[in-house]
Every structure is written in C-alpha cells, then in structure tokens.
Amino acid sequence: MDLIYAVFRKHTTSSTKSLQNFECLHEGxxxxxxSSQNIVAFTTTTEIEDISxxxxxxxxxxxxxxxxxxxxxxxxxxxxxTALEWDLPGDKLLVADxxxxxxxxxFKDHILNDWVCLGTASFPGEHILGAAFFHNGKKxxxxxxxxxxxxxxxxxxxxxxxxxxxxxxxxxxxxCLVISTTGMVGVVIASREGHQGSPQLIITSxxxxxxxxxxxxxxxxxxKNGHFLVAVSSGSVSLPIQCFRVSVKQGDEKCVIMSQALPxxxxxxxPIKENQYRHVSQLKFVVRxxxxxxxxxxxxxxxxxxxxxxxxxxxxxxxxxxxxxSHSSQTEPFKTxxxxxxxxxxxxxxxxxxxxxxxxxxxTMPPPCYVMVALADGSIHCLYRDSLKQVATASLNxxxxxxxxxxxxxxxxxxxxxxxxxxWLGCVLVATDTQGQLYLYRLLPISEPGGPMTVxxxxxxLEYCLVTGLDWWDLLVSLRPSMMDTVCxxxxxxxxxxxxxxxxxxxxxxxxxKTSLYRLTVNGQSKAADLTxxxxxxxxxxxxKSLLRPSDLSSHDKGPAxxxxxxxxxxxxxxxxxxxxxxxxEFTVEPSTLQSLQQLIQWVADLALNLLARLPEQRQPGKxxxxxxxxxx
Length: 633
What we know:
This protein is of the alpha+beta class. It is built from 14 helices and 30 strands.
C-alpha cells in the first residue's frame, strides 16, 4: 500500500493558542463513499474553509479523485449524516441522517459543482444506520475460463441478476432501502415524473423482524433473486448476528415490504472468553453482490477480533421417520443452510472501520477480494479474503508532509481514521480522518495478492471498463510508467481484433481510454492531442450523420453516411465525380436545421482548409493523419 496523496484542511498560522485554533472543534465522525465514476463524497463536521469551528454540523462534499483539492459542497445538515451511498451508474447520491431524513441528490446538467435535490423522505424519530440503492439488474463479469479469448462477447458475459424492484414488464425501478437503529426498514421509490420534471417519491416503512429491537451495526447486499440480504447486530457478542431477506414489490400506487428471518449465528466463543471481546462494532458483506460471506468485527479491552463467516449448505442427520421417501433404497440426506466460521484475524488495537470490494469482476467462486481494516492506532491493514492473511499495511502517520512545522505534526498525532471506502475496480483505497481530510492509497492487484500489476491484468481491467462503462482512473494510478506504452499497444491490438459492430459501439470510449494512457507516457503528448482532435471530429461527424434521415434510400443496407464513406475509399480525386456517385435527395436537410448548425459547418470548413494549407509543411509523415482521416470520413 502506497500513499498517493493526502488532502489536508486549511489551518490558521497564528501562534497564539486560542480556543479558535483547537483542532478538536473540527473533529467528529465522518464518512466517505466512492462512485463508479471515481467521484468521492465525504462529510465534515465543519465547512472546509472554516478555521474557527463556527459552522459545526454535518456537511457533504464531492470531489474528483483526480483533483481532490477542488471540492464542492452538496448540502449542509444540522444533524449528523450517518449514511452516504452512490447508485450503481454513479449519478445519484443518497444522504441519510440521525433525524430520519433521506435525501436524493443528482448532478445538474452533469456538472460536478452544481447539484439538485431530487426529493426528500422523512422517517420521524428514526436514526438511519444503513442504506442502499435498488439494483438495476445490470451485471457484467469476466468469465474465468475464457479470460484469454480474443472477442469481448466471449470474454465478458451478462449475468442473470434481477432488478430489486420492477415495473410491469421487468423494467427496473429507481429507489433506495434504509435501515434504522430501531429495526425499521424503509423504502423510497421514485415512481414517475412529477411536477417540473422531479420524480414523485413513494415512501413505505415496516418492521425488519417480528418485533422491533435495537440495532447498532448493519450491512445490506444484493441477493441473486432480486431481494436484499440484511445482516444486523445489537452490539453485544452474547446476542446473535441476525440475517433477514427483504423483498420489495410495487403495485398500483402501493409498495409492499416483505421480510423473512434467515439463519443467524454467534461469534466463536473461545477467543471472546480469552480476550474479553464484548462489542460487535462492524458488519460487512465480503462482496456487495455476494450474499454468502460476511465479515464481523468485535472490539474489547485487548484489541479487536475479525471473523469471516460463510453461508454453506450442509447435510443434517435426522430420524429415519422424518426423512423424505425415495423410490431408491438409499434415502437422500436432509440439507440445511448454516453459517460456518472460516477464518479470523486479531489485533491489539480496536477496529474503527471495515470496507470490502463493491463488485466481483470475475465469475470465480468464491470471488477474490480484499478486506480493508482501519484500527484506532491509525494503521490500515489489507487482508486477503480466503484466510485473512495480511497482504500489506499502512499508517496514517506516514501522511505527514515533511515541510510542516513540528508543532503542526504534534497536533496531528491525535487524528484518527473515521471511514474507508474502495474504488469499484479495487485499485485504490480512500480514507477520511476525524477532520474530514482525505487520504488515497494504492492497492496491490487482487489477481495476485502481494504481487505487482501485470500488463495482461491491466489490459483486462481496461477492457472491463470499456464494456461496463466504469471509470478507469484508479487503474491508471496503479500502473508503472514503464508499463504505459506496452499496455496501450496491447489494448489497441485487442480492440482492433473485435468485430466491426463492436468497435463502432465502443469507439468513443476506446478513444477516451487510449487518450488517457498516452497522456501518462513521456513521448505521448502529441498522440494524446491527436486523439482528442479525432474524438471531437468524430462527435461532429456523428452529429451530421444524425441529420440525414431520408424517406427513400437507394440502398437499404447502407445509409447516406455509409455510402459517402464507401465512395471516399475509392481513388477519386475529382469532387464532381464523387458527387456523381451520390444521391442528392439522401443528403437533403431542412433549411432551418442548417441555419442552426451554421457555425459548426463554418468551423469544419475552416478546419478542412487549414489542414489542406498545412499539408505541404508536414515534415513528419503521419503526424496529423488521424485528424485528416476523421475529417474525410
């Protein structure tokens, strides 16, 4: 684990030790959450620009992980924010607090520094402890047995994963599910467009179990049949870790919540008795889309205990009178589902936060993943899922800047980690301390725990981002500079082997990924600029092609744009001969439409004349071939 950067708050330069200079005024429980587009949302107890502690509350900020020093405030809450979650596409942000308020926020016109509230749901008197958006049913994974295949459609597969809540016909609904400390399960559904384009919210609540009981730790994951699996704890190790299956169905203006109790379990008794672990502090499913493994953390006087439990199907011996009858002489054993202890990890410091992988990239079962543990002493431990073997470790004390004064270092000795979250590819870890300051760590690749990032694995992750639409920035910061050229060449070679329709569908995303790779190479700045121009020209060409909608086509196999591209492939130098091979009626556009695009057409004409004028000056052949080819096409 390597520290990539740390973003600290502004501190006063005054040498007087007044009450306003105490950093304790800025401390409190903070949260952080990373979206699928590598946008981090985090909370602070005071505003970032405040150095006096007068804006105490709970403030939600967002920032791009690539430029974390440019943070933008989403909302300021008077009550503490207890849940911060992104939806799967990374467009919406859920903010829940101790007063039972659930707010849904989204980008306004896809701008990071401008946010709009989609709606607010209130559950009075409820302390929201956990939340999760509905699953949209889209899940793409890498087939382990076919990871070396050439074609994307063979290497990656769409897994059957039903949406959490569906409209009539199976279309997924948008909404979220929340759990409170009193055992309440609440559902907020954005049913349809309301006034001024905002969604109309349907709010429903019910009891998680047959009776309401106190909950101190909770985690939610997605089941394979469209349901939620909820694990809760009442805080004491003498009480069981309970699990519930929660299903949500939407009818005619009515939402129904169904909760079913599943097998529960107790922690291992031997280490608890020996080390006096009494309080269950954290629950976390190993993978958010895998309901078969759960991480449990308990604190005590002598440190912490972390255990992994797996849901297994086991035969249970019963009396022969109760055994099912079979036509054969051998009776089949009765099978039941039970939680089984797999492994544990112990430390001399209490645990503060646990985070795990958001998704499983491969179809390997059990999915390989990390369990990240933050302890009260400021250390972060990276544990491998199978045996909780420690792969790497880091400390918050390493984030001090060398140029700071000793007094400033001494003040930061009291800082503690408050929350952790991993990126969706699992390449980086984001940590926030009690003052809302951010720390970004580079993680080792999960394909080979403890080993370096390899070129084949990096190319596979880039292809996965190309197919799924996930952001790949966290992968770029994990690559070594010497790997960039090789990764770019191999990624381009793999893309060129795909079918023509596949290349056309992913072409824009391919240019974006390739441009970002060239920007990180020593001699690739000119290529990155060329690809940026090519992407812009491709967008202009797509806009022009969308205007060509003739009622009568000369060829049903090809449209006007494809016919023009075919003619341009021939060695015709006379423009009149090119126009002779085209049908004028297929390129007829309404005058009002042409008038609205007059500036863009003029820009394209100026660019064409400029390229033709500079063509004799090109001393390096092929320097601007990409731009010229895009214009001609």
